[in-house]
Amino acid sequence: MNRTVTESYCITFEVKVNSSDQPEIDRRMECARQIYNTCLGHCQKLWRKVRSIQEWRSALKELQALNRKTELSSDEKSRQRALRQQLKAIEQTEGFSEYALHAYALTINRHFCSPLGVNEMQKTATFAWRAFERYRFGNAKKVRFKRRGAPITIENKSNATGLRLKSDKVLWGGKHTRTLEFPIIVKRNDTYAQQTFLDKTKFIRFFQRTIRGKRRFFIQAVKEGMTPPKKRQYGEGKPAVGIDLSPSTLVAYSPEAAVIEELAPDCEDIEAALRRVNRAIDRSYRTTNPEAYNENGTFKKGCRLVPSRRCQKLIAERKELFRKQAAVRKQSQEKAANELIAQSTDIKVEDTAVTSWAARAKETTVNRKNGKIHSKKRFGRTVARRAPAMLLSIIDRKLKYRGYALKRVISRQVKASQFDHSTGQYRKKRLCDRWCVIDGHRVQRDLYSAFLISHVTGKNLDTIDRKACCDDWTNFLKLQDEVLKTCDKNLGIF
Fold this sequence. Notes:
alpha+beta; globular; about 15% strand; 16 helices; five-stranded mixed beta sheet; 18 strands; seven-stranded antiparallel beta sheet
């Protein structure tokens, strides 16, 4: 019987933990860390065993050959399904599956004398399985184990036993373990958080964060139903919004408004402070661990660096820099997302891989004038600082609350940066050309691309509606003049 899937949302609360309960919390988190690392190592062992099976390797090679084909016949599709089932059957026979890992986690419970519940241990095994899957499918370069003291999230499967939320308190324990009790911190004027207590709790997560050098504990409750209403406005039924995103700027257009602004403007640049802290950490390591370095200053491979108390404070300072920047960046992105969905719930953006902006250039080029090699650096620091992909994920999440979704335009077919709606032709432009002439008018390149994206139609979102563009052309020119008057001249769009 298939499980029914219901709507759900998450809300985070801080919990008040007594100092007397912290040793027990540390013990349970340490057990979860050890189970996670053990399950991860078990996955590595089974993966090596599966890959050594000749039958599995032959089936995988044949499946990869079929996947590379653009068109498959009915027999080839049937063979493709059969090969996938064969691979899965071999893996299950060797115990290489998520549910087999759950059983393994229960068997090692006796070794660790874990105070965690069955569901909590199985969820920890699931985290390890997902981490290994990222490595298996090429989304991660290697498997990373959690070191001692590293933060870890403990999650339950239900709200009945073990880690659970009851009224305004968190209970953690069972028949054979001590039950911890933590009150939830809720502000009196936070009506949104108070309304969430009316919804059923599916399960909760428990984790810790270090804020300003102090450990603070939080829970994330997964609630059933839709989120309580907020003051947030949704532009339902309004014309579509087109977004042209760059590493540092946000450009959007709709028939009602045009936006050209800096992406995450409140997020400060911490590069100078980060360089200062990193230099201090390096000096501290070299002073307290001279045996770990060669005479020429290079690090001896295999040596372990032991941080001093000052070095530990510097590492904590570095973490705090990243934490503050992440918090400010997320708040700024949430604000920008609210402004966009207030214009319309029909939001379109190109399906550009944001990660490619941060990648280094592959080709080596030389300056013809002085013969120097050009730097291969691109927009890595800018992307890390402003996180343009985060904005898109936030918009998509907020739209799904109302049953909508962010629409991805096929950039290879639309080619918004090259299209001219007045002639219907494509003309390639250089990246440095920030302005272009369309129908006798000088228009800003990024804003014009957002204008074209907003008028993309078709079942697969691969066609620009030229008639709609012509009808909205006069309005576009008007909105462009208005937004350019108030736009920051220091942005890289001029």
